[in-house]
Amino acid sequence: RSVARATAMLVSNSDGYLDSRGWTSKVLSHADYDELCSYVRFREQPAPGRCTGFLVGADLLATASHCLKTEESCADARIVFDFALAGPKRMFRN
Which of 77, 71, 90 is nearest to 8 (CA)? Predict the structure, then answer.
């Protein structure tokens, strides 16, 4: 469980808000993000974040280099731990 809890999702600040329940984000499908043909399996599956990462230290997150390419993308990133789907189009942090 501790390893799973060290896994994070990177989402855009513009895609949600922080309230008393935690981070709430609109959750788009893969089809919303990408131009996928109608016959592509799982195209309607939720795609709540743009990348994932994991803790490698108390305050150090490892992620792929394409996830945060510029200072602007870092400033726009929200790192969400312990997330869950609250419905077809919403995600929140527990």
Answer: 77
**At residue 16, what is the residue type?**
G
Tell me the whole-structure pTM to 2 decimals: 0.67
Element (H, E) at 29: strand 28-29
Q: Cβ distance 93 to 83 under 8 Å?
A: yes
Sign of torsion, CA 5 6 11 12?
Answer: positive
Classify burial at 27, counting beta carbons within 10 Å of its beta carbon; exposed 0-12, middle 13-18, buried 19 or more.
Answer: buried
Which H helix or E strand runs over 71? helix 71-76
For residues 79 and 72, is the Cβ–Cβ distance under 8 A? no
- Please state, rounded to an integer, the average pLDDT across all residues of the chain: 79
